[in-house]
Design goal:
By secondary structure, this protein is α/β, with parallel strands linked by helices. It has a domain of 140 residues: P-loop containing nucleotide triphosphate hydrolases (Rossmann fold, 3-Layer(aba) Sandwich), CATH 3.40.50. The chain has 5 helices and 13 strands. A 6-stranded parallel sheet has the order 5-2-6-7-1-8, sandwiched between helices. The longest helix has 15 residues. The radius of gyration is 20 Å and the shape is globular.
Length: 218
Amino acid sequence: MNKNTETKQRGKLEIIAGSMFSGKTEELMRRLKRAEYAKQNVLTIKHHIDQRYSKEQTCIVSHAGQERYAFVIADDVRGFEKILELAQSNVDVIGIDEVQFFSTPIIEVIQYLVENGKRVIAAGLDLDFRGEPFTVMPTLLALADEVTKLKAICVVCGRDAQHTQRMVNGQPAKYDDPLILVGAAECYEARCRNCFVMEKPGQTLRHTATKSMRECAV
């Protein structure tokens, strides 16, 4: 190997995950602000579908009302190209809010940025309203250099909450309801594992099979 060959400096991927109302966006903002204090150039990105709190769609906004300007990105080829265009050589840190809304190509985009020396901080829901891994999040969690999992407070019992309960007319949403429904406290609650309610297809069958397996083991 040529000793004069410059070693390529790679970046870092940080994932902030958790349920709704766990403070993911606030933590993302805090890290981006710290990067700015350190004289680093920061780029903030949000998915175009997230219109909560900000009518102009030009800010990421925490549930507590904190705001930060962000570039609104469409979930298509042009949108992904736009991210790469914005993340030029002078950008040190890229923050992505609600990353679970993006489709699979965002994974390749993030990996490209990290390979080219960028520090990427992405915040998102790790579980959907069904209590299952949310879209791109499982892959990003596996690829991450650092993972921070935040907890909310269960609205039912007050324990730590890792689930997001979607409510429809005061009742838990059904498993086959649409996966994406942008909203806040008007249709979502933080719930712990014990208080989370979701009737999954075939759940009774699985319970019967488990019981049979236990009886066979006796």
